[in-house]
Amino acid sequence: MTETYGIHDLSFATSHYVLTHQVLADETGVEVGKYHRGIGQDAMSIAAPDEDIVTMAAAAARPIIDRHGPDDIRTVLLATETSIDQSKSAGVYVSSLLGLPAATRAVELKQACYSGTAALQFALALVHLDPSQRVLVITTDIAKYELGSAGEATQGAAAVAMLVGADPALLRIERPSGLYTADIMDFWRPNYRTAALVDGQASITAYLQAVEGAWKDYTERGGRDVREFTAFCYHQPFTKMAHKGHRHLATCTGLEGSDEELRAAVVPTTHYNRVVGNSYTASMYLGLASLLDHSADLTDAPIAFFSYGSGCVAEFFGGTVVPGYRNHLRTSAHTATLQRRRPIDFARYRELHDRELPRDGGDHEIPRETAAPYRLAGLSHHRRIYESN
Ligand code: COA
């Protein structure tokens, strides 16, 4: 039998707090329909002061370690654009919180929202070299934009952990991949800034060009006919972007269908992103979780993926859902994760938005707020101190 490689298990975590777009609209005077229908967002996850990309990443991965054990994992690839350190990989903190063996490598990857897909492809190459090993891929981000900016409505926070290996239980990843890179400035965050700079309209145009470019390369390398795919999972800085991307792909490829049919191929991927907001590297994989958790039987269905990271790098690839995948889903845990979040009012949201960690290298305790499995307990001599809750 030919060995297959792909995603064996998938679990996500998000933050302790949630701000609804209704609350945002009431305060900013924007007609709420612009958020609900115009950008396709209902709510966004907001991190508590004792949460960061490490606590969310460890919370996402914990159920995977509990189910499969740590022994086959020799690599942790952590993708983020909310890095907490210029040198040390957040993956090392996560490995420590998860109790992974010392005989493990941990690395952090960056290329805006795309790097989770780079991590997935690198993981597939590693397990191809040695099918007895598994790779823990974690995408984790907190999306933050300036108060009062157009991007403010497209914030959010989440982490998705995936166990990648041979003979996967959820999704076989296929070759080829279609690739596209262009040196553009649609979204970036210099080291001295906590909030990103974004030209939203330029980013929409760049995203659509990247759909076209990545699809062209995918086709030239012998990829599937576009009509073979059952569903299309796009990167979702806001869920409406996935629909824009799909309409553009349909135009470029001659894919026929009514507006309703084109929407139906994307809607099942958007349920989680609608209420979590942008989670950068995690966003497309949250889309995959939504698709698997919310669709009728997808056994043997070919799924299309379009991953985009501003700046920009993009990739189009396919995957096939594995028979029996439903026995391995975490749908009720994912629902509970979202329902556990505490709604906050506008004043509290603004206070959390403006809060920054001290930079003086002193000892600082961070009061307990999150009920997540891990928390950022404080700072000491420029080190982050984590603990289990
Ligand atoms: N009811 C329904 N829809 C409405 C509406 C209303 N009352 N008011 C406006 N809209 C629609 C607009 O027609 C538009 O839809 P369209 O794009 O299909 O034409 C949509 O809402 C957004 O309106 P727009 O005026 O373009 O919004 P904006 O200038 O506030 O910007 C973003 C929206 C998404 C560009 C902005 O939030 C942003 O830059 N976010 C960051 C995106 C990002 O992170 N990109 C980088 C990673 S890919």
How does this structure look, described?
The protein has one domain (5-388): Thiolase/Chalcone synthase (Peroxisomal Thiolase, Chain A, domain 1, 3-Layer(aba) Sandwich), CATH 3.40.47.10. With 389 residues, it is an alpha+beta fold. A nine-stranded mixed β-sheet has the order 5-4-6-7-1-8-13-12-11, with helices on both faces. Strand 9 and strand 10 form a beta hairpin. 34% of the residues lie in helices and 27% in strands. The structure holds coenzyme A. Coenzyme A (COA) binds next to helix 2 and helix 6. The site of coenzyme A has 22 residues, from helix 2 and helix 6. It holds the Pfam family HMG_CoA_synt_N. GO terms for molecular function: hydroxymethylglutaryl-CoA synthase activity. Residues 177-249, 258-322 form the Hydroxymethylglutaryl-coenzyme A synthase C-terminal domain. Keywords: Transferase.
Summarize, please.
By secondary structure, the chain is an alpha+beta fold. It has helices spanning 21-28, 32-39, 53-68, 90-98, 115-129, 200-220, 239-253, 259-264, 271-276, 283-294, 331-339, 346-354; strands at 5-14, 17-20, 43-46, 73-79, 105-109, 134-143, 156-166, 171-181, 187-188, 197-198, 231-234, 302-309, 313-321, 342-343, 364-365, 374-380, 383-388.
Order of helices and strands: EEHHEHEHEHEEEEEHEHHHHEEHEHEEE
How far do the termini sit from each other? Answer: 45 Å
Largest sheet: 9 strands, mixed
Multimer state:
single chain
- How many DSSP H or I helices? 12
The secondary-structure class comes to alpha+beta
Radius of gyration: 20 Å
Low-confidence stretches: none
Proportion of residues in helical segments: 25-40%
Strand content: 25-35%
What is the name of the CATH superfamily? Thiolase/Chalcone synthase
Please tell me the total number of domains.
Answer: 1
Mean pLDDT: 97
**Can you name the CATH architecture?**
3-Layer(aba) Sandwich
Tertiary shape: globular
Total strand count, please?
Answer: 17
By CATH reckoning, the class would read: Alpha Beta
With strands numbered from the N-terminus, the spatial order across the biggest sheet is 5-4-6-7-1-8-13-12-11
Q: What is bound: which ligands?
A: coenzyme A
CATH topology type = Peroxisomal Thiolase, Chain A, domain 1
